[in-house]
Amino acid sequence: MRSFAGRDILSLKDFERNEFFRVFEIAEELEPIARNRRNSDLLKEKTLVTAFYQPSTRTRLAHEAAMIRLGGQVTGFSDAKMTRAGDFYQESIKDTVKMLEFYGDVIVMRHFQQGAPHEAAKWASVPIINGGDGWGEHPTQILTDFYTVMREKGRIDGLNWLAVGDMRMRTMHSLAYGLTQFDCPITFVSPADQRLTDEMKADLKNYNLNFREVEHVEEAIADADVILVEPVVQPDYTKSRDERSGDVGLTPSNYKITRELLANKAKSDAILLHSLPRMDEIPADVDITRWSRYWQEAFNGVVMRMALLALVMGVTE
Ligand code: CP
Predict the structure, then answer these.
(1) Cβ neighbours of residue 170 under 8 Å, at least 6 residues apart?
(2) β-strand 226-229 against 271-274: which pairing, if any?
(3) pTM (two decimals)
(4) Quick one: 123 and 205 in the same domain?
(5) Do 166 and 285 belong together in one domain?
(6) Are 237 and 59 in contact (CB under 8 A)?
(7) Do 304 and 290 fall within a single domain?
(8) How many domains does the chain contain in total?
(9) Atom of ligand 1 nearest to the CA of 275
């Protein structure tokens, strides 16, 4: 298995099957630190730099929380407008990371341009973690989701997946690439203008992913062991910031998971994942049902980032 020490985490297309299991193993080892709300000193000599060119609640703060749980330090920015990249100078990714690499030992970057973290990785002498790039990928979120499935179901192989939402979303791309390493059929449900591109579908066929597309969640929910939902009422992820203006509309029933739908059609032991933020695609009254696992996902989001930071910093092989 390739070493994680010093490695960039940019895409799940790069991940080998045994590497997923290694990450899950380290996450499980470190999980008690977070569960007991303690901090350790595993990364006490290390600093995480957060470079966020787009808004985030979970990804940035979960990485920061993970670093703090491991005894490390955190610096960085969450609003690029207050840096030289976001003012008159429009400072390049290269020039920015050539500074940031001296301020810490690992950089987590979120950017509105697809491929920006890959560009950063070309220039940085420290590992770059992709915290979501445009309509590209969001590898740490899907590693979190896979870990959640491992913890909740005890396995990933052999489970049927249903993915509902905007297939242009970076999480959906990391999900599809990640599942190519497991024995998991997946059904995608999305509006016509939010489908996987033909290029992406050809790539997934090349990687032997067993997938199909249907029009309505009702056509596929009965077979699903894992239901992963994202909004279809979405901002434009290629913008640095997309404020809501006027009426953005409601989610059509084709892409909505309601309490009634779960009770009438879902397997009784299926699990429902949503990384959040959400619109109305999962109403709040679903939160208390036995299917929902999104608060466990939130906890696992910290644990997974602890594992990734420990691995890329080389304190555990
Ligand atoms: N799921 C996710 O990436 O959330 P944030 O945008 O809040 O980081």
Answers:
(1) 132, 133, 134, 135, 136, 137, 138, 237
(2) parallel
(3) 0.98
(4) no
(5) yes
(6) no
(7) no
(8) 2
(9) 1
226: nearest Cα among 135, 150, 302: 150
Share above pLDDT 90 across residues of the chain, in percent, rounded to a whole number = 97
Mutation probe of ligand 1 site: the residue of 50, 52, 56, 302 with most atoms within 8 A of C-beta? 56
Q: Would you say residue 222 lies in a domain?
A: yes
Residues 266 and 305 occupy one common structural domain: no
pLDDT in tens, 10-45: 999 989 999 999 999 999 999 999 999 999 999 999
**Mean pLDDT value of segment 190-207:** 97
Pocket of ligand 1 (CB under 6 A): 56-59, 132, 141, 275-277
Ligand 1 site-directed mutation target among 58, 141, 142, 300, most atoms within 8 Å of CB: 58
> Which of 52, 54, 59, 169 for mutating ligand 1's site (highest number of atoms within 8 Å of CB)?
59
Q: For residue 316, what pLDDT is reported?
A: 87
For residue 1, what pLDDT is reported?
87
Torsion of CA 104, 140, 199, 16, to 10 degrees: 100
